């Protein structure tokens, strides 16, 4: 909240239950690309953090349909064991220098940062959900080239907090 000492574009997108979280996340990622005029954000700098794997997989699929290259950490397989094994392999190949949009869970991104971040929050019902939302929001990396943080929130509990943000 308040003025930051470096150029930061903050946005809060509060969703109604009937609105598509996947579509809102994709729109937020594309919005960051469109709004970075002076020093454009590279696709490789875009990160989408989600609190549920099925949402992240949906975002990755939608971006692929749009011919946007994506790397994600979500396992895909014929059964749960195959999916878990695939997820482990994907996490090993997931790195910040990859030239694709990165989509992963908030938990998987702990310790990392990005200057262009979309954080999806659907659960803020208790301390654990609020802590996870906080962990995601604090992954924004300071950059003299400007920073972009959009929160896509479908948690009604955070609606009032989101109204304090630009676009909230």
Written description of the protein model:
- It is built from 5 helices and 6 strands, in the order βαβαβαββαβα.
- The chain has 168 residues and is α/β, with parallel strands linked by helices.
- A 6-stranded parallel sheet has the order 1-6-5-2-4-3, sandwiched between helices.
- β3, α3 and β4 (101-105) form a beta-alpha-beta unit.
- α1 (21-35) crosses α2 (53-65).
- The longest helix has 15 residues, at 21-35.
- The protein is globular and about 45 Å long.
- The mean pLDDT is 84.
What are the main properties of this structure?
168 residues, alpha/beta, 6 strands
- Give the tally of β-strands: 6
| Morphology | globular
**Span of the ends, CA to CA:** 12 Å
- The residue fraction in helices comes out at 25-40%
Low-confidence stretches: none
Radius of gyration: 15 Å
For the largest sheet, list the strands in their spatial order: 1-6-5-2-4-3
Quick description:
By secondary structure, the protein is an alpha/beta fold. The chain has five helices and six strands; from the N terminus they run E-H-E-H-E-H-E-E-H-E-H.
Topology at a glance:
Elements: E1 8-14, H1 21-35, E2 46-50, H2 53-65, E3 70-72, H3 80-93, E4 101-105, E5 116-121, H4 127-137, E6 147-153, H5 159-162
Parallel strand pairs: 1-6, 2-4, 2-5, 3-4, 5-6
């Amino acid at each position: 909240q308040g003025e930051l000492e470096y150029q930061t574009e903050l946005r809060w997108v509060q969703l109604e239950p009937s609105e598509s979280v996947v579509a809102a996340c994709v729109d937020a990622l594309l919005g960051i690309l469109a709004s970075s005029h002076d020093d454009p954000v590279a696709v490789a700098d875009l990160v989408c953090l989600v609190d549920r794997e099925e949402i992240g997989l949906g975002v990755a699929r939608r971006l692929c349909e749009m011919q946007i290259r994506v790397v994600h950490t979500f396992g895909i397989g014929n059964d749960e064991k195959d999916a878990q094994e695939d997820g482990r392999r994907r996490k090993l190949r997931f790195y910040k220098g990859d030239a694709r949009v990165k989509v992963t869970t908030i938990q998987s991104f702990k310790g990392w940062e990005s200057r262009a971040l979309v954080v999806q929050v659907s659960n803020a019902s208790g301390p654990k959900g609020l802590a996870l939302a906080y962990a995601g929001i604090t992954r924004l990396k300071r950059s003299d080239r400007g920073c972009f943080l959009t929160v896509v929130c479908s948690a009604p509990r955070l609606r009032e907090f989101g109204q304090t943000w630009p676009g909230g």
